[in-house]
Amino acid sequence: MDYQQTALRETSEELGISSNQIKIIGRLDVLVGPMGVTVDPFIGEIIISSLNDISIDENEVEKIFTVPVNHFIHNEPEIYHLRMELHPSIKEKDGSIKEIFPTKSLGLPERYWKSWHMPEREIYVYKTEEGTIWGITAIIIREVVTKLKLII
Hints:
Layout: H1 3-15, E1 22-27, E2 31-32, E3 38-39, E4 42-46, H2 69-74, E5 78-82, E6 85-86, E7 89-91, E8 97-99, E9 116-117, E10 121-127, E11 132-134, H3 135-151
Antiparallel strand pairs: 1-4, 2-3, 5-10, 6-9, 7-8, 10-11
């Protein structure tokens, strides 16, 4: 199964619609998450009469709503920053130290024997009347809007 078929299947399952109701418009750039997970997004059109035609899988989708594309074209996202820290040991409730990644005995460089951090990452946030859009969804929206601005 290729990535496009996977995207169709996942969208169909999450929104409770037939994959025949989804028209793929194109493929976006591969996104790499903070822990190295990759996402291969596609952009498409859902062919339905109204949002009432959708029956979301509540285990995977919190809610659905629409926002005009113009909102994103005319409103840049707010940009925040996060920095992930990694800890090879943790302090237990009783005050003892529990080693969860034995960096010393594995012979890893000394800089990993204590906590270290990943580079800061930008977090995009779009505020709408329907709610806040952030995370991978905001990254995808920003990429689509950036590409649209090149052609309009």
